Amino acid sequence: MSAVPELQLRQIARWCDRRVPNQLRDQVRVEYRLRGRNITIVECRPPFMPELGPDWTETRVAQLRYTPPPPDGGEWTLHWSDSHNRWHPAPDVPAASGPGPLLATIESNPHGIFWS
What we know:
- The protein has about 120 residues and is an alpha+beta fold.
- The protein contains two helices and five strands.
- Helices cover about 20% and strands about 30% of the residues.
- A five-stranded antiparallel sheet has the order 1-2-3-4-5, covered by helices on one side.
- The model has no long low-confidence stretch (mean pLDDT about 90).
- It holds the Pfam family DUF3024.
């Protein structure tokens, strides 16, 4: 299985890092989780009731999927999660050669499916 290109993974990490100003990171963070060739963007919040534990909660925002076609290059697709935690292709969002256009779609949220 071909891994996600490191340069594009760093691009996603930078995008997540820029979503929340430094002074607010004790209240909210945007991070990514890598599993195989799927990258899930999550919004993290501190515990509502600290007495229940120190773990932050995570809300799934979007998923980027990388498919490496032979011999090189690759294709990225964007997915959204429904209330049953099932992923679906984002409507009217074509595949891209890099994650940039898909990250821009997540940020603009044209269908209101990524950020509530």
